[in-house]
Amino acid sequence: MFLPTVAASPKLLLRRCLGVLQRVLCLFLQVYRWTRGGSEARVEGSPEERLRQGATTPTSVNYHFTRKCNYKCGFCFHTAKTSFVLPLEEAKRGLKLLKDSGMEKINFSGGEPFLHEKGDFLGKMVQYCKRDLQLPSVSIVSNGSMIKESWFHKYGDYLDILAVSCDSFDEATNQLIGRAQGRKSHIENLYKIRGWCQQYKVAFKLNSVVNTFNVDEDMTAHVTELNPVRWKVFQCLLIDGENAGEAALREAERFVISEERFQGFLDRHRNVSCLVPESNEKMRNSYLILDEYMRFLDCRRGRKDPSKSILDVGVKQAICFSGFDEKMFLMRGGKYVWSKADMKLEW
Ligand SMILES: C[S@@+](CC[C@H](N)C(=O)[O-])C[C@H]1O[C@@H](n2cnc3c(N)ncnc32)[C@H](O)[C@@H]1O
Ligand code: SF4
């Protein structure tokens, strides 16, 4: 049947051949994704598919409850696009929903989390998560500039880990990056906070973004002296609408470095055992990010697409729009000893 028909029409023969070629290509793509570990195929599934498969558990969540900041880091990928912060009771309601859905670790981030109500809003959430929700791990990532000793005195007991960001041990480089407020020393402050962490029994962590301004620096001596429980080293990442593209508040293109230069930085610091590297690939979809409205942010398309708020539709519905790649989360070592009770720290 087929042969005589196609022989009679070269056009039909061409169309059939193209159809076969298309199917072969699709099959090839599918096999390619499977052999890469299936992570892309899984992440690309539609939200409905993800819901059918059973929603992801929000084991470790990053809540960027404010976008406001007192620093001006030129590469920042979570900028002050709004000044909105949820009322405390609403934020607590959301945190309880997350706990009931399986959350074990919460990380408070921003903007600068110690800015809103001079850190009291943050302190009350930290206290609620540890004392009332009994979460195994409560952590904060901060630029450190607004932290007072009185905060540790009041809330230190409820905090497992404090991460402070520092991209350079040269003040001039910090000024160039924008990681500074006026002429205040970011580095002196970092050392002061390190001391308070020890005094108030909070695990100290360090975060650095490798970019064009610090890529040739050797930070080994300072990091060894500070002795953090983890040193997260990020390759500077671009996110459309945040630090790249027309609607963005920052233009981070001039901070971006290649894979090779990032690897050079890692090689120079190979003797620092607490170093945890995060390339762009590892970082992009391996964080569950909640914004100031408690919406999950999906970074798969190179920008931050928001879900509906967990306060309106619940965690199970909203998380299907998070774009979260659980496999990459585990691969980048996202699950570690994150409760200070389980750490062998020298207090
Ligand atoms: C957005 S900040 C918010 C918390 C706080 N203001 C701070 O700087 O630590 C959270 C973390 O993201 C890092 N970060 C910001 N922009 C980045 C970028 N473009 N690429 C990689 N990491 C980035 C910061 O250095 C910080 O460690
Ligand atoms: S990375 Fe810099 S600008 Fe962005 S929130 Fe943190 S301190 Fe502020």
TrEMBL record:
<dbReference type="GO" id="GO:0005811">
    <property type="term" value="C:lipid droplet"/>
</dbReference>
<dbReference type="InterPro" id="IPR051196">
    <property type="entry name" value="RSAD2/Viperin_antiviral"/>
</dbReference>
<dbReference type="GO" id="GO:0005739">
    <property type="term" value="C:mitochondrion"/>
</dbReference>
<dbReference type="GO" id="GO:0045087">
    <property type="term" value="P:innate immune response"/>
</dbReference>
<keyword id="KW-0399">Innate immunity</keyword>
<dbReference type="InterPro" id="IPR006638">
    <property type="entry name" value="Elp3/MiaA/NifB-like_rSAM"/>
</dbReference>
<keyword id="KW-0732">Signal</keyword>
<keyword id="KW-0051">Antiviral defense</keyword>
<keyword id="KW-0411">Iron-sulfur</keyword>
<dbReference type="InterPro" id="IPR007197">
    <property type="entry name" value="rSAM"/>
</dbReference>
<dbReference type="GO" id="GO:0051539">
    <property type="term" value="F:4 iron, 4 sulfur cluster binding"/>
</dbReference>
<keyword id="KW-0472">Membrane</keyword>
<dbReference type="GO" id="GO:0046872">
    <property type="term" value="F:metal ion binding"/>
</dbReference>
<dbReference type="Pfam" id="PF04055">
    <property type="entry name" value="Radical_SAM"/>
</dbReference>
<comment type="similarity">
    <text>Belongs to the radical SAM superfamily. RSAD2 family.</text>
</comment>
<dbReference type="InterPro" id="IPR013785">
    <property type="entry name" value="Aldolase_TIM"/>
</dbReference>
<dbReference type="GO" id="GO:0005789">
    <property type="term" value="C:endoplasmic reticulum membrane"/>
</dbReference>
<dbReference type="InterPro" id="IPR026372">
    <property type="entry name" value="RSAD2"/>
</dbReference>
<dbReference type="GO" id="GO:0051607">
    <property type="term" value="P:defense response to virus"/>
</dbReference>
<keyword id="KW-0949">S-adenosyl-L-methionine</keyword>
<protein>
    <recommendedName>
        <fullName>S-adenosylmethionine-dependent nucleotide dehydratase RSAD2</fullName>
    </recommendedName>
</protein>
<dbReference type="InterPro" id="IPR058240">
    <property type="entry name" value="rSAM_sf"/>
</dbReference>
<keyword id="KW-0256">Endoplasmic reticulum</keyword>
<keyword id="KW-0391">Immunity</keyword>
<keyword id="KW-0408">Iron</keyword>
<feature type="signal peptide">
    <location>
        <begin position="1"/>
        <end position="19"/>
    </location>
</feature>
<keyword id="KW-0479">Metal-binding</keyword>
<dbReference type="GO" id="GO:0003824">
    <property type="term" value="F:catalytic activity"/>
</dbReference>
<feature type="domain" description="Radical SAM core">
    <location>
        <begin position="55"/>
        <end position="275"/>
    </location>
</feature>
<dbReference type="GO" id="GO:0050778">
    <property type="term" value="P:positive regulation of immune response"/>
</dbReference>
<keyword id="KW-0004">4Fe-4S</keyword>
